[in-house]
Backbone:
């Protein structure tokens, strides 16, 4: 601990304070003769000198800085890989290792270590033997990074990691840099086990009703060379297709492809299963589930343009990235009378329409009158006067042929769609596009995504805006989108930024407005077997204000037709409802509530998945653990060598970490100074009175 004095005025004033005290004492106690002796006179003079000097020092109001330093205890974290593959190991061996780690914790605590536990799922057990080995995947990189973040500021010197080295999620932990030493303890069998497994299954997430789609599966086998097995594609317990494969090597991998038919709408649950042969280590990994959403047709987008233009191809390339869009392109100068009678379009994109002369109004006006959500993409041939009569986004006061050159910048206050503001800064580097020159006024319910940037000047003129009113629409006021995509590829070797903006805007336009008074929906379309299924509930009155405390009846139906019923009442504090321990599968749900005397209903579906990644590979990988320890200066130990770990940790002479705390106090606020001054002056007064002085 040390003290410093911080002066708000010149420290030379201290001498004046002492001089004032000295003069006061000298003048008062040089009177002769006195009724007391010289020793008493000196004592009284000292009391007066110190008291007056302290009072003067209070006027300076200087600061006292107190710095306290302490050496932090060394911190050690015992990290446990509590995944399912660890549970495959010998139970007796695993429990023995956990007991040894518990003993190690007690011994190191006696050596003045701070000890804590860490697991994949953040369990905080009192004892190691309380840890549940039930995690569906292993991400050691995330585990170690979480320890690093949680122990920031502490003197973390060592981490002991108990694992089998099997990583099936995240990156290789040995590729990261850690500031602490990682000692690894390997548990498990590094010898491959005789087994057949469905290693992985691949299928498109979306298929269209009536179409066939591929389901591809990788089947691995160890120790079954020369054996033949059957692989099945099943749905609802019924075999849809069967294939026979033969394993020719001791360690073999075969790929099979099935062609499934999307025969009904909704999420469809398929199972890829392989025969169980005698002598297999485990039969739990002989099947895997796959879920495919079957939809009835695509969203139909009509891209209608005045004349050929590079922007048209750019827009079509963006939309082609979404498999759920079916795009029709109509160029009116090439085909002035397109046949639009056979399709009901969900979104209309008008490029440079209306033009100066409003030539093709009779073609697209009937589509606008139907209320089809529309995206207007402007250009040098756009007739802004006619555009103002047709759109609900903005009014443009511009003369024909008058244009300006601008680029764009993102509106940080735009919240209707999710964009990463930092990545959108790249737009500022894009080439200029041509926009109408003049005043632009936003209309009600309109929001700006991109503003115009002229040179280095960021204006408040909209470049890209959407309107979320009764007739959803949007306007991109520039010509030259194709140059933006080229520039983005030149800068990043990708075409994602601009494509993402346009795709989300078109998805926003194509989304159907939900006018239901009761909306019950799961927070995700997919849950893991260990997750709670969480439903969000929204109830509205006639003017779409939220209502609460209305009972809701929720019914779940699984693939086998079994029904589960629940009742709950959402409140303003909690509008969610949680369901635990649902088996894997596809569930259809139906919610009912009486809203203002009328029965309202909300329906949908969701998936509960049972991941089998931990069981698809149970062969321990000690090489990964050795590499991790070597890189961080730690030691790899097998379960039988665990007794050496205490010696390794104590032998690691980590640098001490000193923690310093600084405390600033004003001298005038110190209570002891006040009482000292009172004590000095009181002592002086009492002595003088006792000795007969005045």
Residues:
């Amino acid at each position: 601990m040390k003290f410093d004095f911080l002066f708000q005025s010149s420290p030379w004033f201290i001498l004046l304070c002492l001089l004032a005290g000295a003069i006061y004492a000298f003048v008062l106690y040089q009177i002769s003769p006195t009724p007391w002796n010289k020793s008493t006179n000196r004592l009284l003079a000292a009391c007066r000198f110190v008291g007056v000097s302290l009072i003067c020092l209070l006027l300076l109001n200087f600061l006292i800085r107190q710095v306290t330093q302490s050496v932090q205890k060394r911190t050690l974290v015992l990290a446990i890989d509590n995944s399912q593959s660890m549970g495959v190991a010998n139970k007796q061996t695993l429990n023995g290792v956990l007991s040894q780690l518990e003993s190690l914790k007690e011994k190191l605590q006696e050596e003045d270590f701070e000890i804590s536990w860490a697991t994949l799922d953040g369990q905080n057990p009192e004892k190691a033997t309380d840890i549940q080995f039930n995690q569906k995947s292993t991400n050691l990189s995330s585990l170690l990074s979480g320890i690093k973040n949680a122990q920031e500021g502490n003197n973390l010197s060592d981490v002991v990691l108990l694992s089998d080295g099997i990583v099936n999620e995240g990156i290789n932990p040995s590729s990261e840099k850690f500031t602490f030493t990682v000692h690894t303890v390997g548990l498990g069998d590094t010898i491959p086990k005789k087994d057949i497994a469905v290693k992985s299954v691949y299928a498109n997430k979306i298929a269209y009703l009536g179409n066939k789609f591929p389901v591809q599966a990788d089947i691995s086998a160890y120790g079954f060379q020369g054996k033949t097995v059957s692989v099945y594609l099943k749905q609802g317990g019924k075999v849809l297709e069967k294939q026979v494969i033969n394993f020719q090597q001791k360690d073999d991998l075969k790929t099979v492809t099935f062609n499934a038919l999307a025969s009904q709408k909704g999420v469809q649950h398929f199972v890829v299963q392989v025969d169980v042969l005698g002598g297999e280590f485990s039969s739990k990994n002989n099947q895997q589930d796959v879920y495919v959403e079957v939809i009835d047709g695509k969203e139909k987008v009509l891209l209608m343009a005045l004349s050929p233009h590079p922007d048209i191809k750019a827009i079509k390339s963006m939309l082609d990235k979404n498999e759920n869009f079916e795009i029709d392109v109509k160029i009116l100068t090439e085909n002035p009378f397109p046949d639009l009678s056979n399709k009901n379009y969900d979104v209309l994109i008008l490029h440079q329409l209306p033009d100066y002369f409003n030539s093709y109004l009779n073609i697209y006006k009937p589509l606008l009158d139907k209320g089809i959500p529309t995206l207007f993409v402007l250009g040098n041939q756009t007739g802004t006067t006619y555009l103002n009569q047709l759109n609900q986004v903005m009014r443009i006061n511009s003369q024909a042929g008058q244009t300006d050159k601008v680029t764009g910048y993102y509106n940080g206050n735009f919240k209707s769609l999710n964009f990463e503001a930092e990545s959108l800064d790249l737009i500022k580097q894009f080439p200029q596009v041509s926009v109408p020159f003049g005043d632009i006024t936003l209309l009600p319910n309109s929001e700006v995504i991109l503003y115009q940037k002229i040179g280095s000047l960021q204006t408040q003129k909209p470049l890209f805006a959407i309107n979320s009113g009764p007739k959803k629409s949007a306007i991109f006021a520039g010509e030259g989108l194709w140059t933006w995509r080229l520039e983005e590829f030149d800068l990043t070797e990708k075409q994602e930024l601009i494509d993402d903006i346009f795709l989300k805007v078109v998805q926003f336009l194509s989304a159907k407005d939900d006018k239901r008074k009761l909306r019950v929906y799961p927070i995700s379309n997919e849950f893991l077997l260990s997750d709670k299924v969480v439903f969000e509930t929204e109830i509205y009155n006639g003017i779409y204000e939220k209502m609460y405390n209305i009972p809701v009846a929720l019914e779940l139906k699984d693939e086998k037709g079994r029904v589960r019923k629940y009742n709950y009442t959402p409140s303003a504090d909690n509008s969610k409802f949680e369901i635990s321990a649902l088996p894997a599968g596809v569930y259809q749900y139906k919610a009912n509530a009486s809203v203002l005397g009328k029965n309202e209903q909300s329906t949908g579906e969701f998936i509960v998945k049972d991941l089998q990644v931990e069981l698809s590979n149970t062969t321990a990988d000690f090489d990964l653990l050795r590499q991790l320890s070597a890189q961080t200066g730690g030691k790899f130990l097998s379960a039988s060598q665990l007794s050496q770990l205490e010696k390794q940790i104590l032998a690691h002479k980590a640098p001490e970490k000193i923690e310093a705390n600084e405390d600033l106090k004003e001298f005038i606020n110190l209570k002891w100074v006040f009482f000292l001054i009172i004590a000095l002056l009181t002592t002086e007064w009492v002595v003088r009175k006792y000795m007969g002085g005045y």
